[in-house]
Amino acid sequence: MVVGSRPAGGGEKLPPHDTEAEEAVVASLLVDPEAIFKVAPKLNGGDFFREKNGWIYDACRGLWDRNEAINQITVAHELERSGRLEDVGGLAYLSRLVTDLPTSVGVENYAGIVQRDATYRKMISAAGQIAQIAYRGGADVGDALGQAETLIAAVRQGESLRDFQHIRELLTGY
Questions:
Q1: What is the DSSP letter of 71?
Q2: DSSP secondary-structure letter at 45?
Q3: Span 83-90, mean pLDDT?
Q4: What helix, strand, coil percent values describe the chain, rounded to 5?
Q5: CA-CA distance, 174 to 107, in Å (whole number)?
Q6: Distance of CA 173 to the CA centre of its chain
Q7: What's the pLDDT score for residue 110?
Q8: What is the enclosing helix (H) or strand (E) of 39?
Q9: Contact of 110 with 1, CB cutoff 8 Å
Q10: 88 neighbors 97 (Cβ within 8 angstroms)
Q11: Is-contact 72 30, C-beta < 8 A?
Q12: Tag placement on the chain: N or C end, fewer CB within 10 Å?
């Protein structure tokens, strides 16, 4: 887990992220047919810090949206179709994910970690934008405060999607 640690050499802090949780989410999707139902309401591909994990997640979501099976072979094919298979590390990376996954039982917890860290990164981004607004100043402080509130509300609105339940989940019992 890496949470805002400094890279070797004393460079800038990295934004909050947990690579192991990200890999556990996508690996769970590759081995557990039910995992997508548990994480789809919480995550989107942009929530992943490592772009390649987001691409794999998006490939899984694309397959799921088309009612196709999600596994190493179908995900590899989907990534190949989008020209990203080699960018993610090829079949070797997908295989390593599956091999290294201890269990898919905690996929909701892994997804929660990914979603939480994505929210923190959005907060950091909003804070930077708010600082720029403040530095620009202007005659109307009320306008600046309104812009800042809009940025914070956008971060909070992303949080409210957690209560979303996909229609497939609701209809599974029928």
A1: S
A2: G
A3: 96
A4: 70, 0, 30
A5: 24
A6: 28
A7: 96
A8: helix 35-39
A9: no
A10: no
A11: yes
A12: C
